[in-house]
Amino acid sequence: MAHTDHQTMRRVLRREIAGTIGLLTDEHDFRAMRRYRSFTFSDHTAYLRQVEDLLKTRAAQGSHTTVALFDPQEYAEYCTDAGLDPDIQSSRTRFTAELATTGPTIPYDGQPLADLVPALVDEAVRQATWEYASTLLARLGACASCGEDIGRAAFVRASHFLVRILETAQQGDRHLVCSVTGTPEALVSVLHTEEDTDGATHLDEAEALEFTTVLALGLATQGPGGLVMRTSTPGAPDRVYGWRMRGEGLEPLTAGEVFDAYCTDIDSGDLISPESDVDYCVPPDLGDTGQTPGHHH
């Protein structure tokens, strides 16, 4: 009887343990891990199928699982730095535990792996973009004239612009794209916001942080770059408008410039037929941008 009680308690405790699975999302990373003898999978498709079955089983048992992006190169570097043998399972387990707190992760909520993998890759790109933009902002240092931290001031200014852009937009869902090309690596950040029936705007905080950081970098380095927004409201045409980065501010694009940007193939330069039920227009006035907070000279 006591033995049965102990087994029951262990089963209950097992459901209290949160788990993390390090996922090899593509064939290239999978092949890189096959050089380790202790990694016994031989087929990537079969591996993904087994992972999905395990996720479903854990979910059915009431266990919470987080899926992390497993990068073989980062794993090898981690083992070298920590003095671990990369060809044993415990090293992979330790690395995966580290990913749970520092790397890109997605909680498993029963979604198909075919939906989870792209979301996980997008999360990895978002985190890498934010880290890169943050590093470049930090390297700008202090202003030689006044001593103010240029990156911090640009972030404050970018936050102000984002708030004003959302405040002046028509009701509905918004899709914003910010691109900065005047840095060693071109950066693109995307922000989605949704509006509920009470008119409240909802957005992902991590996504908003990345977007604001990229915008701040464009403002601090004075572009070139731009920001475009598309708003969607049921029963009305979508509205598309945007701004180019000019100096430390945003300069409105004309309706014709927005139309040209959306109706020209980036690679070939050929014209593309405009979408139906879409208005290409001038953005609303953001107010006195000369009084926006941030660094000014």
Q: Which secondary structure elements does this structure contain, and how are they paired or packed?
A:
Elements: H1 2-16, E1 19-23, H2 27-33, H3 44-60, E2 65-69, H4 72-82, H5 89-102, E3 105-107, H6 113-139, H7 150-168, E4 173-180, E5 187-195, E6 201-203, H8 205-220, E7 225-232, E8 238-246, E9 249-252, H9 255-262, E10 278-280
Parallel strand pairs: 1-2, 8-10
Antiparallel strand pairs: 2-3, 4-5, 4-7, 5-6, 7-8, 8-9
Helix pairs in contact: 6-8, 7-8
H/E element order: HEHHEHHEHHEEEHEEEHE
Biggest beta sheet summary: 7 strands, mixed
Extract low-pLDDT stretches: none
- Count of helix runs: 9
**Strand content range:** 15-25%
Number-wise, the strands total: 10
Mean pLDDT: 86
Taking the alpha carbons of the first and last residues, their distance comes to: 79 Å
What can you see in these coordinates?
It is a single chain. The chain is of the alpha+beta class. Helices cover 45% and strands 19% of the residues. It has helices at 2-16, 27-33, 44-60, 72-82, 89-102, 113-139, 150-168, 205-220, 255-262; strands spanning 19-23, 65-69, 105-107, 173-180, 187-195, 201-203, 225-232, 238-246, 249-252, 278-280. Strands 4, 5, 6, 7, 8, 9 and 10 form a 7-stranded mixed sheet that branches. The protein has a 3-stranded mixed sheet with strand order 1-2-3, sandwiched between helices. A hairpin with a 6-residue loop joins strand 4 and strand 5 (187-195). The longest helix has 27 residues, at 113-139. The mean pLDDT is 86.
